[in-house]
Amino acid sequence: MEKNSVIAVFDVGKTNKKLFLFDRHYKIVYEKSARFLETTDEDGFPCENLDSLRLSVFDSLDEVSRKTDFDIKAINFSTYGASFVYLDEKGDTVTPLYNYLKPYPEDIQREFYRRYGGEERFASQTASPVLGSLNVGMQLYRIKREQPERFKRIKAALHLPQYMSYLISGRLYSDITSIGCHTNLWDFEANDYHPWVENEGILDKLAPIVPSDMVYSSQLPDITALVGVGLHDSSASLIPYLVGFNQPFVLISTGTWSISLNPFNTTRLTELELKSDCLSYIQYQGTPVKASRLFAGHEHEKQVERIANYFNQATSKYRNMIFDPSILKLDNRRELRKSFSDQELGVFASDVEAYHYLILHLVNEQKRSTELIIKGSDVKRIFVDGGFSKNSIYMNLLAAAFPDIEVFAASMAQATAIGTALSIHHSWNSDPIPNDLIELKFYSPSIVL
Question: What does the CA dihedral 268, 273, 275, 278 come to, rounded to 10 degrees?
């Protein structure tokens, strides 16, 4: 029986760790999911269990390699960012995988920015707000200050995607999608590492940068597949859209955070944009993507619970609520507080009306956030994926908020994993990339906001 040629993609989130096998048409032919108990670092702060993650990679590859119906041609990885794995001379880990949510010491942070030009200037150069441990380069700076002996032992600091690739290829390398995403390592003005990286002796500990579409041979005797270098998940999720669409677009990726991504805006971040939670990162082809973020999914969840409790309803009622434009007509518009969280729910005639106004508030905030990264580019389309793409009230109001731009709900199974596979398409797949990877639903403006 002829084997099915596939690519294996490890998609590692903070909570779920998944392995997918995609065939040559990028259809999922195998899927496995795992969750690991967290461990703690030396301060008792929760962190990823690296041993469990490492063993799961080997066990999962061993399992799928023994399946007689698959021929694994390539392997690639995408993971969450802001995470370094520190290796010593023998390839053993030197520290835990520190959690990017771990509070950063204020005295070390003040010292750093005082030494390197101040927060505003430094944030402008590195295209990122001041985010503490989320600026992953600051984790290395902290180790040098607090744990100098451990710092000396570090031979290589690998971003998490490249560590996973290293487990199979045995090679040390860095990738620009991780380096260029709010790390404090990359100087966007000079298009090189920021001078502080060399000044502090950190450059010597960073592996050489290789192209994001590079592949290497496996060091494992039973694995003959080519090995990709791995990608930051935010960059990977954008790849199917970059491959599929040529006209300038913005992708609003919705979940706990609603993140607006504009790969067609090359203007420098302004002070206002940085203060408004905007940043730039570098996508897999090496060009910058301007991004803004909004805590919209989290706020939606909180307020839905508040509405449901007040009106004695189940929260599930609002999952597929139909849009009723008559509720929000201009001649029927209510004067409400600027923040929905401060809004008294008693002013609404029903929970349906309250929910419509909640979404209106969120869309108004989304418009302000997205406009920050549209400015300076000729965007023709907005694609929305994730949870809000399935919300008809949200999508209709978003279309009304951007009447001069085409607004689409985008549906795609496992965009991050498929993007990770597409990044090395040429290495393992001789078929053309399918043109039907993304399902689109158009929303026309049906109400004046």
Answer: -90
Per-chain mean pLDDT for the chain: 93
CA 421 – CA 439 distance, rounded (Å) = 18
Other beta carbons within 10 Å of 149: 8
Domain coverage including residue 303: 233-449
Q: Which two tokens stand for residue 286?
A: 């090496």
Domain limit, last residue, from 183, 200, 229: 229
Give the pLDDT band (50/70/90) at residue 255.
Answer: confident
Residues 188 and 260 in one domain: no
pLDDT value of position 67: 83
Q: Do residue 24 and residue 107 come from a single domain?
A: yes
CATH assignment at residue 389: 3.30.420.40
* Residue percentage of the chain with pLDDT more than 90: 83
Predicted pLDDT of residue 334 = 82
d(CA 208, CA 206): 7
pLDDT of residue 14: 85
Note the pLDDT of residue 1. Answer: 61
One domain for residues 317 and 436: yes
Residue 449: its pLDDT value, please?
67
Mean pLDDT across 375-392: 92
Q: Is 436 in contact with 418 (CB distance < 8 Å)?
A: no
Neighbour tally for 412: CB within 10 Å: 19
Pairing of the two strands 84-87 and 156-159: antiparallel
Residues with Cβ within 8 Å of 48's Cβ and at least 6 positions away in sequence, in order, are 14, 36, 38, 39, 83, 96, 97, 99
pLDDT in tens, 139-151: 999 999 999 999 9
Same domain, yes or no, for 106 and 181? yes
Vertex 294, ends 290 and 296: CA angle to 5°?
A: 145
**How far is 114 from 98, CA to CA, in rounded Å?**
25
209: DSSP letter = B
Q: Are 224 and 218 in contact (CB under 8 A)?
A: yes
DSSP letters, 29-80, are: EEEEEE----EE-TTS-EEB-HHHHHHHHHHHHHHHHT-TTEEEEEEEEEE-
Which of 228-232, 290-294, 329-333 is modeled with the greatest confidence? Answer: 228-232
Count of Cβ atoms closer than 10 Å to residue 13 Cβ: 14
The answer to whether residues 254 and 223 belong to one domain is: no
User: What would the DSSP string read from start to end of 384-423?
Assistant: EEEGGGG-HHHHHHHHHH-TTSEEEEEE-TTHHHHHHHHT
408 and 441 Cβ atoms separated by less than 8 Å: yes
